[in-house]
What we know:
Helix content: 25-40%
Protein name: Glutathione peroxidase
Distance between the termini: 31 Å
InterPro entries: Glutathione_peroxidase, Thioredoxin-like_sf
Strand order of the largest sheet: 4-3-5-6
CATH architecture: 3-Layer(aba) Sandwich
Shape: globular
Keywords: Oxidoreductase, Peroxidase
Radius of gyration: 14 Å
CATH superfamily: Glutaredoxin
Organism: Herminiimonas aquatilis
Family: Belongs to the glutathione peroxidase family.
CATH class: Alpha Beta
CATH topology: Glutaredoxin
Amino acid sequence: xxxxxxxxxxxxxxxxxxxxxxxxxxxxxxxxxxxxxxxxxxxxxxxxxxxxxxxxxxxxxxxxxxxxxxxxxxxxxxxxxxxxxxxxxxxxxxxxxxxxxxxxxxxxxxxxxxxxxxxxxxxxxxxxxxxxxxxxxxxxxxxxxxxxxxxxxxxxxxxxxxxxxxx
Length: 167
């Protein structure tokens, strides 16, 4: 798996799918991406429903929602990859791609999230992710457009997504 940071866009990164297959993010070239660190036992877990609705509504227009389960915040994603996939499908009908559980902060943070955090810092310039369901909107060229707080409802991003889809 590639672990070096491509300073220009996300297309130099790889991530493992829930079944362990290495996925080059270059596969999503030309798409608008909504990248989210997720968890199954979080106060924001119900956002899976809104993420799926946004995905279904805009997928044919060029949007991909990518979910990255993370257990770094209060042990809110304790399951293994199979359990995560089953939970998301059973409870929220998730059809968008989910990846293997990762770290988003610290020395073991996935390189993709290091890039995202650097490209779109949070409040007061912080590069830390504060909680699950932090969202990053990525343009078709693989550069980061904007970062959104965990409490931001995915439905409220539709106007920004539409703007990027039209570019």
